[in-house]
Specification:
Elements lengths: L4 E7 L3 E6 L5 E5 L5 E2 L2 E2 L2 H12 L9 E7 L4 E7 L7 H9 L6 E8 L2 E8 H12 L3 E8 H7 L9 H6 L11 E5 L2 E5 L6 H28 L29 H4 L14
Parallel strand pairs: 1-6, 6-10
Antiparallel strand pairs: 1-2, 2-3, 4-5, 7-9, 8-9, 11-12
Helix pairs in contact: 1-3
Length: about 270
Amino acid sequence: MVKKQTIAVFLESSRISLCLKDTNNILQLDLPPDTVSDLEVIDRDKFEQLVNSFFQTDAFKGIEFDVALVFSRDVTFEKDFTDNATKVNYEEIQKFLDIVPFEDILSKTYKINRKAKIVAVNRSLYDVICLALEKNKAYISLVVPMAILAETTPELSTNVDLAFIAARSDSFRQYSFIEVKEANLKSEQKNSIGIKKKDVRLYALLGIFALLFLILLMLIYTTFFSSPKKNKKPVVLPKASVSTTIPVEMIPSASQSGNISSPSSSLRPTH
């Protein structure tokens, strides 16, 4: 197995600096505005070409590297929180991340003394440089913000010493910005804090959908399955009473039968 050499790569907004372990030689690669602007890679192909040409120099050609990638303070976004209770409110973290002007970000919260420092970076920028380095057999094994090194390492509090960082890269793993696993000569990166804007929006939409679906299920259940059952009693029909009707022959009375005597007959008084 080929032994890899350790190299420190310092990423700035308009420049990349590299320094091999046990050397003081620092090589710099300028990033023109038509390639990288406002921490966004404008031309990815040109960016990769610049990095490729850089690794074709005699100092780097044909060598495999373990890369300690350091983000300069002009490519990261930071905020400090006083942390007397050793716990930072999630909502406060999210409010800060929402103002970072990128759709997809990497972020991590560090505990330093009695405060919490949140650091965020444009994930797209990281992904592009990571892929460009891997194409040149330079595999990232450590990612750390300069803002953290400056606060935790006295030797780096006032200046950037890439040779020192390359030599002490193993001791800086405790401040790693993301978890890096190497497999099949390729590194896999994971977000250390797991907070991303797209994820938050997606989880919110999924939560709303789940709530609406639950309400729909409740309506269906209450409408078709949970209606109060009425005690149905058998209908008792009234018994028909049979009455016998006896025909009655009507006998006309005297007043109704007319005069009995002839009309010429009449009672006359006797004289």
